[in-house]
Design goal:
By secondary structure, this protein is of the alpha+beta class. It is about 40% helix and about 25% strand. Strands 1, 2, 3, 4, 5, 6, 7, 8, 9 and 10 form a ten-stranded mixed beta sheet that branches. Helix 3 (about 80-90) crosses helix 4, helix 4 packs across helix 6 (about 260-275) and helix 5 (about 215-250) packs across helix 8.
Length: about 300
Amino acid sequence: AEARLASDADASGQGRNVLDAVLAIERRCFGSGEALGGDPAVAELTVECMVDEPDSKYFLCHSLSSPLVIAYYGVRFTDVHLEDVLRALVDPVERVMRDSDSEYRVHRSATDDDPLREEDISYALRAPWPFSDREVLQRRWQLPLQEVGRPTGVAVVMRSFEDEAMLPPRPDRVRAFAHKSAYLLRPPAGDPRPGEPGLELVICQQLDLGGLCPAWAQRFITRFAVQRSLEWAAKLREHCLVMPERRVVWASGSDVQDPAAAAAGQRRGAAQDAEVASPIELRGPMSGGDVLGAILQIEQLCSEHSVAG
C-alpha cells in the first residue's frame, strides 16, 4: 500500500510539473512577463502571435538555431460540451474515428482505481512533403484544473519518454520528443447553467522535432502548423456536435456498425494506405528543382489560407 501511495504521488508530481510549465507558457504568451519555466534554452525563444481573433489565438515560440518549438493554440466553443470534447480527445475509439490518419494507439491503459488515469500512448505527426513524418510516444495524465473565478476544468497533460520495446523505431520516420504538452479544458467563466454548452480549449506543446529544420523551411512549416490547427479545431467541433446522437443510436442497437468496428476499419485502411504510399518509396533523393517545387507548393498553400482568412 505504501509503495502504491508513493507511485501515485510521483505520477501526480510529474503531471503537476507539466501543467505548471504549460500555465507559465500561457502567461508568457499573453504578456505577463514571466519567463518560460526558467529554462534558458526556452526563455530565449521568440514569441510570435500567428492568429489573434476573439475566439481563436495561436502563439508560436521558436528559434532558428534550435529544433525546440512551443505552440500554443486556444479556441472557444459555444455549442459543444466539455465532456464531449474530453471524450473525443482521450477515448481511443473516438480518437481513431476522428483522426484515423494519426495512428493513435494506447499501449498501456489506465487502471480503474487510478484517479490520474495514467496511460501510455503514441501517435504520428504528418509533415508536409518533402519532410519526414514524426511519431511520438507519451505518458498521459488527467488532472483537475482549478482556477479562481471558474468552475473546475480538466487538464490532460503529457510528456514523452523512450521505450523502443513499446514503440520500435521506424526507418521512414523521425522520433519527436514532446517535453511537455497539454489540453486545458475550461468551462465558461462565471456561473454557467448546468448542462449548458461551451468551453475554452487550449492545446500547448513543447516539441523537439528531431533534427534541425532548415531556416528556409521553418517559415513554411510554422504556417502549415497554424493552418492544420485551425482545421483540427473545426473537425473536433464537428465531431462533438454529432457524437451525442450517434452514441444514443449505438446504445439502442439500431446502428449497422458500432464505433469499435468503425474505428478498426479505419485503422486497417490507414495501415493499407501506409503500405501503398510508403515514404521510403516516394521520398528519394531530391534535386534542387524538387526542393524548389516543394517550397512553392507549401508557399501556395499558405497564401491560399492567408487569403481565405
